[in-house]
């Protein structure tokens, strides 16, 4: 198991490295820079600034300097928030983004799995039809629209929940963002789970389990869930990057102080250091979570461990 | 965007089916497929609504008394008013919302078509080359695809915005250039099976060059997967576009798109709900219809029971 | 009370298709004595498996079983699944055709076995696992303690079928239903498996229902047999009687289609044609299109199952001796 895990990590790290490299060169190749503005800086000041950010060096040298910094844990200075380093800014946004993302991920996956099972067990009866409708909305309606509508309804008309903003430690402020983020994810999980559960319930080994007189609840809980989860778990990887996309929007809609907003700000301001830093952060996050997903997968499907 | 319309699953299953057939041909719309499509009520209704939306977007502007950026100083933030000719109301700048919604839909559709076309072209070329030449070329090319798959797509889209920021069409050429991965995989799989077929052997024996074979004999047989791919990619791009526009990274004022409209409508929806609701309805119907048409086409072209 | 452990009365199994109903089993009757082995023989589609899946409450969702299945004084049919679970696995157990797919791939063997004892015997996990290992040893699995910790995919087909047998016999059920238990196995393994069935059912006093299309299997293990065709029983009786003196043309046909080592020279004489589709059974006797002895009455009227004495019954109008006439 440990060897399996190590192998997965080792094969994933190069991808993070490539991503950062590609981003680095694309950004540098793009026309315009972080210090273009309506009122140009005096040439000598600009020269100083460029020297400070190593922008006066040859491109490849800049790259080496950057990678060297990253390996030492230094993501460099931010180019638009002059007084902060990228690491400092990320340290501010990261706890929040992680809290939001992981809460939504866990909740949505749980709900998706449960509703998928319910839909499968009540196939072609009313709970199934109802769930299929909710799932369809989650899959098709873009999350910013769902977000805007929920915000309007629960935050503005009913005033049940805060419409946006963030107070540290307040769960009420998280409800709507998490709901929006979860809906789409849960919908996809639910759809997958329904399909694979229906398939599993038709297998011979579930029939065997029934023939043993275990009772339907035991048959579902012990014999059907584990195999039915396999396709769901293999979707969690792609699902994560999808969730990440959603979090960019959700942080924007509800005015939340997460990394997603820094990333978009940074992209707009051409803050190279910040864009690269956040990209790296997202890559590492995805790799870490994918690793967990892989391990769960190996637990679910004993055959995988031997490959 | 991974899994946005579950395009990957749909197409992979479709491609698997094709390759298990005795005579795998991504055949174009045969009589049989057309009949099955006609029998699919959800898809036919969707097709009809879709046609209506396309007309609305491209023909509608000629029948609306206001231009999309024309300001009516007499009515700013007014709800739908039939006498003044503002059927959807006006926005905070006094611009007619109906005209803007039409223009926005048009923009969303154009952008989706451009990006889809780019991704289809790249995907076919890449996949056909990898599949046709096979061996090490194939291995390296598909390894690259696998690696790109693992990257968080949306980060690259946003970085592209930085590069092409002010030019929407260029931006979506860029997005198309990232979208092609799925297409390449499917085309490669198809090419691998097609190149063993007699007609390709015959062409090769007749001394045809690889490029001729690829574009004359293999590409035309990919119609089925390409049609399905395109109908599923268009809604995906529409979502990406509206998503970017929503974040303020896509289409810029005074031009507009469905995403931009929703993004300006959302924060003020309490006061001027029509600014959110009309573009929202169009966007959602568009996405639903495209999805059902895509599903319908997949079922109609399903090679299973042929 | 009768000395029968299982008594089936007028069992019918129907499947609802989108606009029609298909009857897979029609008015089946039989009794099973304690400790005996009954073979149920027929081609695929004759309804032999569906009849017993119906008794076990394991039909597909669109399937429905009617009639009576008396396990002692209890009617298993029409019982709520939750009540049925008190008997399934405990008094009446079933083994399925394909050992490769009938065990859960994601659970250890011991988990799948011991849960039966936990449920029906109320054992704690440790005791259940010990009993499991003993049972694995009894069905001839080498290193049972080690094998108990394995996953099904780490075992061969024969090994898995042994596990299935162990699983079914854990609670020493009164009745064991084996649905083509040897079909998916190698010939050499088949013989071992039949042996195992014989010994174990004798040891436990379990009645065995052996569903099969293979008359070799029947000859090896069964006391009595029931031949099914088109969803109905067409002939019943002691195995020896039916083998040496078949009274139904279909039984005769089956015997002639079986290769026999002793009569190597004799050419096989297969039954002509295909088994009927259950949706379109022919009028009169279902077997009439393929029957060499068919006459006018068979085309019009369905022969009822009539007792011939000495536990024999047949459903055929033809009264003459079958052997003299060559089949088709």
Automatic annotation (TrEMBL), chain A:
Compartments, as annotated in UniProt: Cell membrane
Domain ABC transmembrane type-1 span(s) in chain numbering: 94-293
Bilayer disposition of the protein: Multi-pass membrane protein
Example GO BP: transmembrane transport
Top-level taxon: Bacteria
Main localization category: membrane
GO CC terms, sorted: plasma membrane
Transmembrane segments: 12-30, 100-122, 129-154, 166-187, 228-250, 280-300
Stored Pfam families: BPD_transp_1 (PF00528), BPD_transp_1_N (PF19300)
Cited PROSITE patterns: ABC_TM1 (PS50928)
Keyword terms: Cell membrane, Membrane, Transmembrane, Transmembrane helix, Transport
Entry's family note: Belongs to the binding-protein-dependent transport system permease family.
Entry protein name: ABC transporter permease subunit
Organism, as annotated: Devosia marina
Automatic annotation (TrEMBL), chain B:
One record GO biological process: transmembrane transport
UniProt entry keywords in alphabetical sequence: Cell inner membrane, Cell membrane, Membrane, Peptide transport, Protein transport, Transmembrane, Transmembrane helix, Transport
Places the protein is found: Cell inner membrane; Cell membrane
SUPFAM superfamilies with a match to the protein in the record: MetI-like
Membrane-crossing residue ranges in chain numbering: 42-64, 107-132, 144-163, 169-187, 226-251, 271-294
Its membrane topology: Multi-pass membrane protein
Residue span(s) of domain ABC transmembrane type-1: 105-294
GO cellular component: plasma membrane
Similarity-based family: Belongs to the binding-protein-dependent transport system permease family. OppBC subfamily.
Annotated protein name in UniProt: Oligopeptide transport system permease protein OppC
Annotated source species: Devosia marina
UniProtKB/TrEMBL annotation, chain C:
Pfam families per record: ABC_tran (PF00005), oligo_HPY (PF08352)
Residue ranges of domain ABC transporter in the record: 8-255
InterPro entries the record matches: AAA+_ATPase, ABC_Ni/Peptide_Import, ABC_transporter-like_ATP-bd, ABC_transporter-like_CS, Oligopep_ABC_C, P-loop_NTPase
Any single GO BP term: peptide transport
Molecular-function annotations in GO: ATP binding; ATP hydrolysis activity
Domain of life: Bacteria
Major subcellular site: membrane
Gene3D superfamilies hit by this protein: P-loop containing nucleotide triphosphate hydrolases
Subcellular location: Cell inner membrane
SMART domains linked to this entry: AAA
Keywords, ordered alphabetically: ATP-binding, Cell membrane, Membrane, Nucleotide-binding, Transport
Signal sequence extent: none
Residues passing through the membrane, by range: none
GO CC, alphabetical: plasma membrane
Lipid bilayer topology: Peripheral membrane protein
Family to which the UniProt record says this protein belongs: Belongs to the ABC transporter superfamily.
Identification of the protein by name: ATP-binding cassette domain-containing protein
